[in-house]
Amino acid sequence: VGTHRIEAFSDAVFAIAVTLLVLDVHRPDDTDRLWHRLGELWPNYLAYVISFLLIGLAWANHHAMFQYIAHSDHVLLLLNTLLLMATAFLPFSTSVLAQALSTGDGERSAVAFYGGIVILGGLFFNALWMWARHDHHLLRADLTPASARAIQRVYLVGPIFYLIGTVLGLIQPIAGLVVFAFLILLYWLPLPVLTKSGHGSPPRRR
Amino acid sequence: VGTHRIEAFSDAVFAIAVTLLVLDVHRPDDTDRLWHRLGELWPNYLAYVISFLLIGLAWANHHAMFQYIAHSDHVLLLLNTLLLMATAFLPFSTSVLAQALSTGDGERSAVAFYGGIVILGGLFFNALWMWARHDHHLLRADLTPASARAIQRVYLVGPIFYLIGTVLGLIQPIAGLVVFAFLILLYWLPLPVLTKSGHGSPPRRR
Amino acid sequence: VGTHRIEAFSDAVFAIAVTLLVLDVHRPDDTDRLWHRLGELWPNYLAYVISFLLIGLAWANHHAMFQYIAHSDHVLLLLNTLLLMATAFLPFSTSVLAQALSTGDGERSAVAFYGGIVILGGLFFNALWMWARHDHHLLRADLTPASARAIQRVYLVGPIFYLIGTVLGLIQPIAGLVVFAFLILLYWLPLPVLTKSGHGSPPRRR
Amino acid sequence: VGTHRIEAFSDAVFAIAVTLLVLDVHRPDDTDRLWHRLGELWPNYLAYVISFLLIGLAWANHHAMFQYIAHSDHVLLLLNTLLLMATAFLPFSTSVLAQALSTGDGERSAVAFYGGIVILGGLFFNALWMWARHDHHLLRADLTPASARAIQRVYLVGPIFYLIGTVLGLIQPIAGLVVFAFLILLYWLPLPVLTKSGHGSPPRRR
Question: How far does the CA of residue B117 sit from the closest CA of chain C (Å)?
Answer without folding.
Answer: 21
